[in-house]
Amino acid sequence: MTVLQLLPALDSGGVERGTIEVARHLAGLGYRSMVISAGGRLVDILIAQGSEHYCWPIDAKSLRTLRLVPRLRRFLVEKEVDIVHLRSRLPAWVGYLAWRGMDPATRPHLVSTFHGFYGVGRYSAIMTRVEHVIAVSDAIAEHVARHYHCDAPVTTIPRGIDPVLHPPGYRADDAWRRSWAEQYPQLQGKRLLTLPGRISRLKGHHDFIDLVARLKESVPDIHGLIVGGQEERHRAYLSELHEAIVQRGLQGDLTFTGHRGDLREIMSISSLVVSLSRKPESFGRTVLEALAIGVPVVAYDHGGVGEILAAMLPSAGVHVGDRAGLHDCCLRFLRQRPVITELPTRFTLEAMLSATVSVYGELLAGSRRRPSMLANAAQPGRPHQRSPA
């Protein structure tokens, strides 16, 4: 089986991470795994894990990007691609138009993953013009059903994490702790309240600043930690946050770390992790990772994050924008650590990868293409939740 995944770039984020994980799994099964993107820092990792990468300018939001359509059509024929997996809207337009112009009897099968609550409209509807849609949460599956006329089946396959990398009770080792103490000596002896996520208005930083100010009144050793990178286009927003911190007199109580590659370790030394996005998250991987290692989370109860909380820590959910409720829940957890349910199987990386390959296998089993490989491609008996289209 030859699978091609299309996405804008391979830098960082949930789409990129999912692409890398599926590519690694396919290569490990002996299949041919290919990715087309505009490149990025994850390309070397992708190649080292056994996949092929083709660097195309497929990320440019311009009609000129559609010039790649005939080139991609030739590529699909030359490489004898069996499955094309669309992971973002602009590449999806290129992929769909290339696929549509091919012979239906011999062209690849077309799959998409709805990674987010895309704005409703014709541009986003391209993600439904496929043979099978994968939704990263039930909330996304419901979004597709509510806003789009989708003839394709929609399967919910939650993003998964590796329980080996995120075992219950995980704690960063001594070497990491020493390095952390050298970088952030001001945090020693503090109770860390951590907000993971890039610097963006969607992530609820103003609510976080207010939360730290409220908690300081009864938990004087609390310290807010904002872990996430900043894009140039959000520079003004970052300045706005710093001004808000000064106005609240919290200069010594909040730290920005920038982008970090050791979020697991940071969360392991945190007293609480919070998720405060005012708009629903499509899934909420950092919430799942924190809970998996046994670190309590307090979060706005909606979207994919709400589904994770319902399965592992229902008492952690707070109504969106309820700052008083947010404070009360955090204070309650700081005073008495809650009991967290163990990681459900449906949220594991193995379940995600198995279900994804099963979708590929179901498509191939329904066609006349390459029947000899179906026994390996389809993995019967691996359950995955299906949501109505």
TrEMBL record:
<dbReference type="InterPro" id="IPR028098">
    <property type="entry name" value="Glyco_trans_4-like_N"/>
</dbReference>
<feature type="domain" description="Glycosyltransferase subfamily 4-like N-terminal">
    <location>
        <begin position="13"/>
        <end position="163"/>
    </location>
</feature>
<protein>
    <submittedName>
        <fullName>Mannosylfructose-phosphate synthase</fullName>
        <ecNumber>2.4.1.246</ecNumber>
    </submittedName>
</protein>
<dbReference type="InterPro" id="IPR001296">
    <property type="entry name" value="Glyco_trans_1"/>
</dbReference>
<dbReference type="GO" id="GO:0103011">
    <property type="term" value="F:mannosylfructose-phosphate synthase activity"/>
</dbReference>
<feature type="domain" description="Glycosyl transferase family 1">
    <location>
        <begin position="182"/>
        <end position="311"/>
    </location>
</feature>
<dbReference type="Pfam" id="PF00534">
    <property type="entry name" value="Glycos_transf_1"/>
</dbReference>
<keyword id="KW-0328">Glycosyltransferase</keyword>
<dbReference type="Pfam" id="PF13439">
    <property type="entry name" value="Glyco_transf_4"/>
</dbReference>
<keyword id="KW-0808">Transferase</keyword>
